[in-house]
Fold this sequence. Notes:
This protein is mainly α.
Amino acid sequence: MGDFLQYVDLNTYLHRLDPRTKFLFFIIMSILTSFVKSGVALLFLFLVFLAIWLVGRIGQYMLVLLDKIKVLLLFIFLLWLVLGIFTINEGPVLFRTAFSIFGHPFVVSLEAFDFYKGAVYALRIFLMISAFYTVILTTNFSQIILGLRSWKVPYAIAFGVGLVFQIIPMIVQEFATIMEAQKSRGLEVDKCSTFAKLKNYVIVSLPLLFRVLSKGHAISLAMHYYKLNFKVQRTAYKMIKATSSDLFFSAVTVLATVVTIVLQVHYYIPI
């Protein structure tokens, strides 16, 4: 479970899919979650993701992911909650007061809509991250490159994209390691004020930067020592081929996209 951010070798429906099918799923879902702002539409999309995770038997790993980014999601929720205090919205009012500073009137208002808005943005971010890790957990490094190469993508670009899919989980894992080390030294991150959390994250960012630079240097040295040459013509031992399973998964993805857009149009509340 410690390697939840990396490829999990399982024999499931999701793992057996063509990597190109999963890559298209990632692209479509990334675009979709970037503009959908309806709570109903996002909730439906979350149920679609949940069904996919259950089929791929990666639900437990997504729960661990949720636990790891809960601070980020809480920060996003609280940020929009604070911003909403200075905006008057329609709907049930939970708290409202007026005051003046140097003759300028101000109104502080907290409505139920502010909680809705914070939840919507937190769910959007979670789905964006989940789409990425759904691919990571079910597709290994070589499959990503092989899938892109089958689209006639130059090997250098395909290798770079595959490397990004590997490096980002490594960076997150390094961040989690540094956070645990700082906690053991007495740095409180979870049970403190929002301002204290921001300050502590800034403190952690410096060693994270050096760790990331060190990882990048190690990768570049490995590529140099092994004399990686992108101009060499490469073959693959295993060929990929779309099957009826890929067609079915693509159809489900398209259907889920259409339903999400329809729900977005009908149930969108301006935020």
